[in-house]
Amino acid sequence: NAGVTQTPKFRVLKTGQSMTLLCAQDMNHEYMYWYRQDPGMGLRLIHYSVGEGTTAKGEVPDGYNVSRLKKQNFLLGLESAAPSQTSVYFCASSPRTRVHEQYFGPGTRLTVT
Amino acid sequence: AQSVAQPEDQVNVAEGNPLTVKCTYSVSGNPYLFWYVQYPNRGLQFLLKYITGDNLVKGSYGFEAEFNKSQTSFHLKKPSALVSDSALYFCAVRVGNTNAGKSTFGDGTTLTVKP
């Protein structure tokens, strides 16, 4: 049982490049989330999903897209990276019956130059 | 709207002493409150939660938190701190058990426990 895993762990992009962050969970959780963590700003929700095939915007969705084609995977895409998207990205999941208990992945550190 | 405040960026305590990490919240409705811990280069780990019932809730690693409705606070406590408790602590709040994704996190408090 690996829990929540994220790929890659680190990435450096140039402005304008695109990339996809992959989140996978093996706990059969219905809900999945993408957050970004910036110094002094806590965690901010980017997008989330309440089930396969559904996604919704969080607090800071601009510049990101997501897809949940399979229940166990939640992808976060940056179509045209900007320096303001330099951050640490965390994926989380939670079961429908205990939606408040979120299980987090180890994070992806992204730098956009 | 819901919000969380962690008024201290840093808390320093000596090993063996009691520790308190403060959290206050603002919500419209009954709050669900949580504490998470983050160790360096790791994701957040769930520590404990208050949903309803006893105001004092116990969680992992000997931590506990006290829900105070009149003061809208949910301070994290431990009777005797360990050096290994040094980490970044986040308080979070949401209203109800619906609205997935609607938890609001505080900015975090760095706890340093010195030997």
Question: Which short descriptors sum up this protein?
Answer:
heterodimer, A: 113 residues, mainly beta, 7-stranded mixed beta sheet, 4-stranded antiparallel beta sheet, B: 115 residues, 6-stranded mixed beta sheet, 12 strands, 0% helix, 52% strand
Task: Write a structural description.
The complex is a heterodimer of chains A (113) and B (115). Helix content of chain A is 0%, strand content 52%. Chain A is mostly beta strands and 113 residues long. The mean pLDDT of chain A is 93. With 115 residues, chain B is mainly beta. Helices cover 0% and strands 52% of the residues of chain B. The model of chain B has no long low-confidence stretch (mean pLDDT 91). At the A-B interface, strand 5, strand 9 and strand 10 of A face strand 5 and strand 6 of B.
How are the SSEs ordered, and which strands pair?
The complex is a heterodimer of chains A (113) and B (115).
Chain A lengths: L3 E4 L2 E4 L5 E7 L5 E7 L5 E9 L2 E4 L7 E3 L5 E6 L8 E8 L8 E2 L3 E5 L1
Parallel strand pairs in A: 2-11
Antiparallel strand pairs in A: 1-3, 3-8, 4-5, 4-9, 5-6, 7-8, 9-10, 9-11
Chain B lengths: L2 E3 L4 E5 L4 E3 L2 E3 L4 E8 L5 E7 L5 E3 L5 E5 L4 E6 L8 E9 L8 E2 L3 E6 L1
Parallel strand pairs in B: 2-12
Antiparallel strand pairs in B: 1-4, 3-9, 5-6, 5-10, 7-8, 8-9, 10-11, 10-12
Question: How many beta strands in the DSSP annotation of chain A?
Answer: 11
What Rg of chain A is obtained from the alpha carbons, in whole angstroms?
Answer: 13 Å
Give the overall pLDDT of chain B as a whole number. 91
Form type of chain B: globular
Terminus-to-terminus distance of chain A: 36 Å
Low-confidence stretches of chain A: none
Number of helices of chain A: 0
Oligomer: heterodimer
> Uncertain regions of chain B: pLDDT < 50 for 5+ in a row?
none
The N- and C-terminal alpha carbons of chain B lie at a distance of 41 Å
Radius of gyration of chain B: 14 Å
